[in-house]
Amino acid sequence: MSKLAGKVALVSGSGRGIGRAIALKLASEGARIVINDLDAEPAQRVVAEIQAMGGEAVACTGNVTASDFAERFVKTAVDTYQGLDIIVNNAGYTWDNVIQKMTDEQWYAIMDVHLTAPFRILRAAQPVLRAYSKAEQEAGREVFRKVVNISSVAGLGGNAGQVNYSAAKAGIVGMTLALAKEWGRMKVNVNCVAFGLIKTRLTEATADGNASVQIEGRDIKVGVNPDLMAMMERSIPLGRGGTPEEAAGAVYSLCTPESDYISGQTIVCGGGISI
Asked: Which pTM does this prediction carry?
């Protein structure tokens, strides 16, 4: 029997990369997924992949930093599937610079996507989760729900050139700890996965160093110099960067019934990197 059969999951930033892998993994175990991406095409592509597997999914496109997004995201789950059991705050990107060259725009853009957006999504979800929990407690039933926030080893140990990203990812760990205490009475497990080097389009080795993606009209530089990538991989005890599917496995482990007595924890998915 699928471990997540009947569960309803929100996965932000799930049209590509790690988010897509998380959505596919949860769907493969029976969860019904609300897919999110900035753009409709990748979101609908993942919806189609899940449906082709025999699963259920619907898209909620848009920028997670928009002021009305959180309520719309939660409403999509409740209106479509009449439930909400799992929230994975995955959406994000990096916009790096050393502190003396970092603009306020860079700082706030990264804070907004990695910290403010998860805050708003969880705030919007609280009344829904509270109502479900109250009804279940009155019926004498113990039902656990899951929040998995995504951090990074940069949020635990810092990373030169990423003061904005490191600060935001440290902040999500603090948010996890606070909500684990607030939401324990509602039987919500709130945990965090901190990724090390996971190979996606944002970290792909690029020889010329000129690769970029468009985010909100901005050209954001992505990719890692191949020599630097090789050096980074040599520093990982398991000898290589992780795959999106391996990253998804760490998130999935915190969504299963086996994690019902785990809350307020940050698990490092980094191939043995110690902070």
From this structure: 0.94
pLDDT tens-digit series, residues 153-191? 999 999 999 999 999 999 999 999 999 999 999 999 999
Catalytic residue annotation: 165
Residue given tokens 């497990």 in the structure block: 189
- Domains in the chain, ordered, with CATH? 8-198+244-269 (3.40.50.720)
Q: How far apart are CA 249 and CA 13, in angstroms?
A: 17
Q: In what order do the strands lie in the sheet with 8-11?
A: 57-59, 32-35, 8-11, 86-89, 145-152, 188-195, 266-269
- CB of 44 closer than 8 Å to CB of 227: no
User: Is residue 229 very low, low, confident or very high in pLDDT (cuts 50, 70, 90)?
Assistant: confident
Q: How far is it, in rounded angstroms, from Cα 33 to Cα 48? A: 12
Looking up tokens 């009305």, which residue turns up?
A: 68
pLDDT, one tens digit per residue, over 19-43 is: 999 999 999 999 999 999 999 999 9
Task: Name the burial class of residue 90, with classes exposed (0-12), middle (13-18) and buried (19+) by CB atoms within 10 angstroms of its CB.
Answer: buried
CB count in 10 Å sphere of residue 135: 11
Question: DSSP letters of 166-235?
Answer: HHHHHHHHHHHHHHHHHHGGGTEEEEEEEE--B-STTT-B-SSS--EEEETTEEEE--B-HHHHHHHHHT
Q: What are phi and psi of 41, to 5 degrees?
A: -60, -55
| Cα 231 → chain centroid | 27
